[in-house]
Write a structure and sequence with these properties.
Elements (H helix, E strand, L loop, with lengths): L29 H23 L33 H6 L16 E8 L2 H12 L5 E6 L4 E9 L2 H13 L6 E3 L4
Antiparallel strand pairs: 1-3, 1-4, 2-3
């Protein structure tokens, strides 16, 4: 069904040509109005009772006689000078921490590419050399593949630092391995 091109239904017209319907008049619920007024009056009277006691009793003020003796104020003793002991104790204290020796695993090598043609491997090696890093080309599979390898690194952190240097130069795809050549 096509709702966009649908026509409006015809309106019924009365004999006079005007709509004879009148808006329905709402009646005021007097019971709810009276209940609301009673609740408001009860709330006000309750608050007055809590705040001032009896709401019908006249308010009276009481005065304090001026002849009551004032207590004499003694001077406040001076604050004693505090001497902190922990400052002296911490100056002479030494903290000993046991740091375990870091185990060095096998040396890490980073391979940045593997090519069929030695000229492609030389091109990548030159791009790596432009970043100040030294790489080597290792032939594998009887000279059919040429791998471009950096390292060996003693720690993975040193290899990661060089990999980030190469990534900043848009040389991606370098992988760090536990290899021994």
């Amino acid at each position: 069904m096509d709702y966009a091109n649908r026509k409006r239904p015809p309106q019924r017209k009365s004999a006079k040509g005007k709509n004879n319907r009148k808006a329905p008049q709402r009646q005021v619920p007097w019971g709810i109005v009276v209940l609301a007024i009673v609740l408001v009056v009860a709330l006000v009277l309750g608050l007055r009772f809590i705040a001032g006691g009896n709401p019908d009793a006249p308010a009276t003020t009481t005065e304090v006689p001026a002849s009551t003796p004032q207590p004499t104020a003694e001077p406040i003793p001076e604050k004693p000078e505090e001497r902190w002991q922990y400052i002296e104790e911490l100056e002479n204290l030494e903290v000993e921490v046991d740091v375990p020796e870091r185990e060095l695993g096998p040396p890490k090598l980073m391979q940045c590419g593997s090519f069929r043609k030695q000229s492609d491997a030389e091109r990548l090696r030159a791009a790596i050399a432009m970043q100040g890093l030294e790489s080597k080309i290792y032939p594998s599979n009887g000279g059919t593949w040429y791998r471009v390898v950096l390292g060996p690194y003693e720690t993975k952190r040193a290899a990661e630092a060089d990999r980030h240097t190469l990534q900043r130069a848009n040389i991606h795809g370098c992988q760090i391995w536990n290899w021994n050549l």
